[in-house]
């Protein structure tokens, strides 16, 4: 990498970062993350975290980053759970919702006065049909590390009603951890599509434009003045490119360098780096 690249990076005003696989993996901060964000903060750049991970509230992400020594405020965090709650509250405000997902998603939905019908931890000891399946208006899915047989059975039967909407926070099939990959929110969608014999109606998170456009709006930045740092080509990079945002592909996360051959060249990242620590060296 050359010093010219460092000069090029500083021409941007808004810096958008994916979380998992770029800044951290679960509870482990990745090399260069804290240092790069500190440099950008000193340069008065606008920083936003754009994550498809729906398992936590925005407040929990602020606290998570604080534990890494990274200080951001609530408005700098955009999650698929928060945007899903915002979308549903604005579009279907009186809806009754069944959630395949974790507590953070349920809390985001309830904070905007949406009714989550399964706001407890469902166990396999429960009868799947001991639930008013007909009362549900929307099934919302996200990553669920406490997924149970009874949850799948209920969601499957609810979705057989074609009037019930099927919304996904994100379609990430896998999720990176320090030990390897585990099933992500997209895996929940695939399972339910197969079980219910229907396709999902709406997906909120990246690569859909909603999260990118909201970050642009909050940052008051032009598309050409923003850059997205991501580790997943099909969501972070393709999604940002579709909106017209510059991109930096960070290796070591969900996608590999060899995966570039699967992309149309119009979606190729503008910058490729092994890690954020490599970028820190430029500055």
From TrEMBL:
<dbReference type="InterPro" id="IPR036412">
    <property type="entry name" value="HAD-like_sf"/>
</dbReference>
<dbReference type="InterPro" id="IPR023214">
    <property type="entry name" value="HAD_sf"/>
</dbReference>
<protein>
    <submittedName>
        <fullName>HAD-IIA family hydrolase</fullName>
    </submittedName>
</protein>
<dbReference type="InterPro" id="IPR006357">
    <property type="entry name" value="HAD-SF_hydro_IIA"/>
</dbReference>
<dbReference type="Pfam" id="PF13344">
    <property type="entry name" value="Hydrolase_6"/>
</dbReference>
<dbReference type="GO" id="GO:0016791">
    <property type="term" value="F:phosphatase activity"/>
</dbReference>
<dbReference type="Pfam" id="PF13242">
    <property type="entry name" value="Hydrolase_like"/>
</dbReference>
<dbReference type="GO" id="GO:0005737">
    <property type="term" value="C:cytoplasm"/>
</dbReference>
<keyword id="KW-0378">Hydrolase</keyword>
């Amino acid at each position: 990498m050359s010093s010219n690249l460092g000069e090029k990076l500083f021409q941007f005003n808004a810096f958008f970062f994916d979380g998992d696989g770029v800044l951290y993996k679960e509870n482990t901060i990745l090399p260069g993350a804290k240092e790069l964000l500190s440099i950008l903060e000193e340069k008065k750049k606008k920083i936003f975290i754009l994550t498809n991970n729906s398992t936590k509230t925005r407040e929990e992400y602020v606290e998570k980053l604080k534990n890494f020594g990274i200080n951001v405020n609530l408005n700098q965090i955009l999650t698929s759970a928060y945007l899903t709650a915002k979308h549903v509250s604005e579009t279907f405000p009186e809806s009754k919702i069944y959630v395949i997902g974790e507590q953070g998603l349920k809390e985001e939905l309830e904070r905007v006065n949406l009714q989550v019908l399964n706001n407890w931890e469902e166990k396999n000891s429960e009868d799947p049909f001991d639930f008013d399946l007909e009362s549900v208006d929307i099934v919302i899915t996200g990553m669920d590390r406490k997924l149970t047989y009874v949850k799948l059975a209920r969601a499957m039967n609810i979705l057989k009603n074609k009037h019930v909407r099927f919304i996904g926070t994100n379609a990430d099939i896998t999720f990176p951890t320090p030990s390897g990959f585990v099933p992500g929110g997209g895996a929940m969608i695939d399972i339910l599509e197969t079980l219910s014999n229907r396709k999902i109606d709406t997906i909120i998170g990246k690569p859909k434009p909603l999260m990118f456009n909201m970050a642009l709006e909050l940052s008051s930045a032009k598309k050409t003045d923003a850059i997205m740092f991501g580790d997943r080509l099909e969501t972070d990079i393709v999604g940002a490119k579709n909106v017209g945002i510059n991109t930096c592909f960070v290796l070591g996360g969900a996608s590999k360098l060899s995966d570039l051959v699967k992309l149309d060249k119009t979606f190729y990242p503008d910058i490729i780096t092994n890690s954020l620590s490599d970028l820190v060296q430029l500055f």
